[in-house]
Amino acid sequence: MDLISYAELAVLLVNNPDRLTGLEGLRTLLEESGRPRQTDRLTPGDLDALRGLREELVAVFEAAAGGDEREVVDRLNALLRRHPVHPQIADHDGEPWHLHLTEGGRFCDQYIVGAVMGLATIVTDLGPDRLGLCRAAPCRRAYLDTSSNRSRRYCSERCASRANVAAYRARKKVGQDSGGR
């Protein structure tokens, strides 16, 4: 089971609040996540549950970005208690037998359990510092750092480039200011 892909569900949810304004936006988000199955079952209750989860996940990423490991773990444990994991063996889409975290309950339960369990796995296997918020101002989008050297600081190459250009310009300006005196 690829739990990193489940953790990416959490990132996708945190980074796309605009997709949680209606059921059609939620369907689009689920298609982007690679889990578009059974979106015809979506209800307004699913949408409300995922909006609530998003707020809780934002708090997890904020705690991680602030270096508060205990807060990250406490928040994830609270989510795991509210959304227990029910593993099930499945085969679909031509794939061999593999584990899914849940197949029952409301549609959103599958997404919620996957996202929370994925983050819990990242935290226990790699550490809470592997969850972060982009350091490129004013971005603040969530990311997972799965690099071998713990070097990720930005949500995308675009933000990394923008931050590097801004830092270069700031250094250049300081050099010009001090050189002219």
UniProtKB/TrEMBL annotation:
Pfam families recorded for this chain?
ABATE, zf-CGNR
Ranges where the Zinc finger CGNR domain occurs: 130-172
Q: Which Gene3D superfamilies match?
A: Jann2411-like domain
What InterPro entries does this protein map onto? ABATE, ABATE_dom_sf, Znf_CGNR
Name used for this protein in its record: Zinc finger CGNR domain-containing protein
Q: Identify the species of origin.
A: Planomonospora parontospora subsp. parontospora
